[in-house]
């Protein structure tokens, strides 16, 4: 990046932080979570208002990939921190409750979404109607997991039983919904896209068979006070 692009990137970061923090503080004044104001800041800076006049000048093509990468890293670290703070006893023995909540919170919006898709088909022609209906139904079923986690964290509920069940339910819903969405996208795309869905199988197996046991052993060792020694 050129020096002027680096300067613009630093300005954008400072401007985003100031505006998001400011609107987040104002949101708390009206009894709303700070994340509501922070989302509003994104809407104000995005292409929704002023037909992109502000966003095109502030977020040029040179800085957008960098900002996007930083945002992804930030969300990943935040979600890791949330998962790290969840108390295990809050979820112990509540598998059935979590499963029931996951099914209920997915089935209702999915049914409503498919109904909306049927209605939209009257005015929107598409070659693969079944994929369109399933896609709309799944799209409205996905939970905004980072937003939910942030709200629970701000309210001090992330470590409670209710917060733990809510996060576990949202995690299950997101895994199922995003996996199904990937399958739908591959089914209506080119034949070369099926490998993306196939790669999810070894990834899930790697997480369950290697990463999860390794993390469990590490947390147990840390809990015993052994540390890295």
**Count of domains:** 3
Give the % helix: over 70%
How many strands, which pairing sense, and closed or not: the largest β-sheet? none
Separation of the first and last Cα atoms: 42 Å
In the predicted model, the low-confidence regions spanning at least 5 consecutive residues are none
Helical segment count: 10
Overall 3D geometry?
globular
Question: Order of helices and strands, N to C?
Answer: HHHHHHHHHH
Tell how many strands the DSSP assignment holds.
0
Oligomer: single chain
Give structural attributes.
229 residues, globular, 10 helices, mainly alpha, 3 domains, 0% strand
What does this structure look like?
The protein has 229 residues and is mainly alpha-helical. The protein folds into three domains: 85 residues, no CATH class; 103 residues, no CATH class; 31 residues. It has ten helices and no strands. Helix 6 packs antiparallel against helix 8. The protein starts with a helix and ends in a 6-residue tail after the last helix. 16% of the residues are buried.
Record the SSE blueprint:
Layout: H1 3-29, H2 34-45, H3 53-58, H4 64-85, H5 95-120, H6 129-139, H7 145-154, H8 161-188, H9 194-198, H10 200-223
Helix pairs in contact: 1-2, 5-6, 5-8, 6-8, 7-8
């Amino acid at each position: 990046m050129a020096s002027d692009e680096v300067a613009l990137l630093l300005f954008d970061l400072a401007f985003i932080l100031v505006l998001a923090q400011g609107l987040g503080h104002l949101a708390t004044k009206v009894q709303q979570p700070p994340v509501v104001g922070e989302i509003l800041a994104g809407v104000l800076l995005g292409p929704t208002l002023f037909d992109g006049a502000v966003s095109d000048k502030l977020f040029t093509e040179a800085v957008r990939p960098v900002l996007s990468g930083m945002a992804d890293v930030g969300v990943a670290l935040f979600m890791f921190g949330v998962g790290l703070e969840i108390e295990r006893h809050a979820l112990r023995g509540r598998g059935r409750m979590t499963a029931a909540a996951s099914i209920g919170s997915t089935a209702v919006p999915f049914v409503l979404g498919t109904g909306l898709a049927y209605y939209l088909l009257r005015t929107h022609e598409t070659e693969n109607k079944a994929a369109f209906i399933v896609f709309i139904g799944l799209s409205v079923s996905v939970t905004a997991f980072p937003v939910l986690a942030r709200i629970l964290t701000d309210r001090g509920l992330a470590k409670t039983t209710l917060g733990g069940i809510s996060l576990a339910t949202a995690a299950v819903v997101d895994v199922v919904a995003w996996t199904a969405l990937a399958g739908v996208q591959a089914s209506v795309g080119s034949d070369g896209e099926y490998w993306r869905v196939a790669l999810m199988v070894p990834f899930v197996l790697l997480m369950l068979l290697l990463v999860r046991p390794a993390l469990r052993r590490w947390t147990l060792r840390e809990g015993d006070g052994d540390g890295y020694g």
